[in-house]
Amino acid sequence: MSARLFHAAAIAAALSGCASAGFPPVTVPDALQPPAGHQLSLAANATGVQIYVCSAAKAGPAQAEWVFKAPEAALFDAAGAVIGKHYAGPTWEGNDGSKVAGEVKAKQDDAAGKAIPWLLLAAKSASGDGAFGRVSYVQRLATEAGKAPADGCTNADIGKQARVPYKALYRFYVAG
Question: Rounded to whole angstroms, what are the CA distances from 106 to 3, 74, 94, 95, 166?
Answer without folding.
Answer: 31, 23, 24, 28, 20
